[in-house]
Amino acid sequence: MQALIGAREMPLYRMMGYHIGWEDRQGNPMSNEPPMRHRGVACLTACSAAGGDVEAAVPAATAVELIESFCQIHDDVQAGNPQRDGRDSVWWAWGPAQAINAGDGLYALARTAILQLRERGVEPAAAFSSLQVLDSASLEVFEGRFEDLEAQERINLSADAWLGMAGRKTGALFGCAMKLGALAASADDSVTDGMATCGRSLGIAFQARDEMRQVWGGPGGQDAAAPDVLNKKKLIPIVHAFEEANLHTKRRLGDIYFKRVLGQEDVPAILTILDELGARDYCESLVQRHRTEALDAASVLPAEGAATVGVFIDTVLKS
Amino acid sequence: MQALIGAREMPLYRMMGYHIGWEDRQGNPMSNEPPMRHRGVACLTACSAAGGDVEAAVPAATAVELIESFCQIHDDVQAGNPQRDGRDSVWWAWGPAQAINAGDGLYALARTAILQLRERGVEPAAAFSSLQVLDSASLEVFEGRFEDLEAQERINLSADAWLGMAGRKTGALFGCAMKLGALAASADDSVTDGMATCGRSLGIAFQARDEMRQVWGGPGGQDAAAPDVLNKKKLIPIVHAFEEANLHTKRRLGDIYFKRVLGQEDVPAILTILDELGARDYCESLVQRHRTEALDAASVLPAEGAATVGVFIDTVLKS
């Protein structure tokens, strides 16, 4: 990622470096702890687990991480998030118009990255398939993001609709990452398909885990509800509650969710309803079900590779 | 374009069909006169002029038109344009967040389009080069759009800086279109390079002609200045005026341009200053110089092909 972005002089690329976390707003290097790059690591892990040389998968891993970064920048504009990872978001620092440009540019760089697969010795057919995989996954991600924005306008969303949306919005890129890793390892179709399924299930489990954390916090709990709760996002615990509530409880939820703006003072009542409806157990079993699906899909690999993928899956779901 | 977008059901694709002009907001077919698709036609013209079968270039022509549409949608969000081609712009109809998604999706579809070159019989090496050409042109377009937004914050921009910006913002995609056409015709390097130069020069001439029209209107003149004049865009006539004005005239221009908002009542004074500084002749000679460069570059083609490209160039510059 640094080779692609760092060498370019134009201020457009400074916005990208800032977002990814190497630079401050003035373009000076920063040495923060880098965030987990789950999708890139998923790609490299799948390549290695399928018996490939991870170096071959680096362009693909770079591409999926650049797409994730691009989506984050556009997401912050779309949702109006002023902050990301404790710093001003790109649109907050440079304005929405330039943030849109920075995101578009990262998407183009993702394409530039994946074209380098051939230079890493990936066979032409696998390199060409990789391009198709990346493009169709990107399109699926935009479909999922479209559904996500549409769902915010609606009061209820079925758990099935949530699953479809999470599969597109998050599962598609994880699935793409792992499939690209297998392609870079010249794996056969059963392995590349298995890795795609594995990544997609992992992505859904990760999304559910992430949304649980926004409601209930991490292992140590949290002081305040995350902005997405107050933004009435269709987080899976809330989706479950709307789906399972009886008429009386639906009315209590409606009293809260029909308010124009939610505040911290509304959160205890929401948490009480979620408790009554067993939302936490429901979400935990959803995570476990997709974790199991991911592990099952990884069983197309030789035992050692499957074990490596298993460790990776649990790292992602615990992080 | 219709084969790629029309067959998809999700409402995301209805925004695209609306923008491109086939559908109304409810998704019902519309039979308006389609707009000129200069970039797509540039690609097909270059292919044919270089002795190729235009059918082979259709995926590439589709890709550049989808990129142009994607840029228009994001541009309308960035500039806050409520209208395009006499209809509500996508963000005005669906909101900026979904408009960003629709643009992102069109970009992904452009990639999907160009991957079909192989199915049209284009050789692997030329198909692979085409991908690289499209990606690096896209990146250049975003660089130019970045500069364009930055320039709006500044009072002056040199004519040289304008030329660099126009080359990136508009020239890059025209150059890419014509180069892709030559690649689809399996032309040799001298021809593909010539077509790239031809398209880039044509793009700059087209941009200058378009900005002249925003100031002075088309052949029949116009009643009111275009929004870009009032938005203090760094249109080439204005750029020339700021560069050529003496101290006294600079002060007159400054009095106008330091206002927070320009109104129609400021336009006569601007037009007077442009007249005094010969801005119209300057811009016309800029157009002619780049037209000549484009024609010269086309002379790498056989005489008949060069003549075809010449007719196309004049069509674009008169449209």
Architecture overview:
The structure is a homodimer of 319-residue chains. With 319 residues, chain A is mainly α. The two termini of chain A are 22 Å apart. The mean pLDDT of chain A is 93. Chain A contains 15 helices and two strands. In chain A, a hairpin with a 2-residue loop joins strand 1 (83-84) and strand 2. The first copy, chain A, has helices at 2-5, 11-20, 38-49, 54-79, 90-94, 96-114, 124-152, 159-184, 189-216, 227-230, 236-244, 247-257, 267-276, 279-298, 303-318; strands at residues 83-84, 87-88. Chain A is globular and about 60 Å long. Chain A has a domain at 2-209 and 295-306: Orthogonal Bundle (Farnesyl Diphosphate Synthase). Helix content of chain A is 72%, strand content 1%. Chain A has a two-stranded antiparallel ribbon with strand order 1-2. At the A-B interface, helix 4, helix 6 and helix 7 of A face helix 4, helix 6 and helix 7 of B.
CATH topology of the domain at 2-209 and 295-306 in chain A: Farnesyl Diphosphate Synthase
Number of helical elements of chain A: 15
| End-to-end Cα distance of chain A | 22 Å
CATH architecture field of the domain at 2-209 and 295-306 in chain A? Orthogonal Bundle
Write the element-wise H/E pattern of chain A from the N-terminal end onward.
Answer: HHHHEEHHHHHHHHHHH
Oligomeric state as shown: homodimer
Radius of gyration of CA atoms of chain A, rounded to a whole number? 20 Å
General shape of chain A:
globular
What's the total count of β strands of chain A? 2
* Nearest-integer average pLDDT of chain A: 93
- The strands making up the biggest β-sheet of chain A line up spatially as 1-2
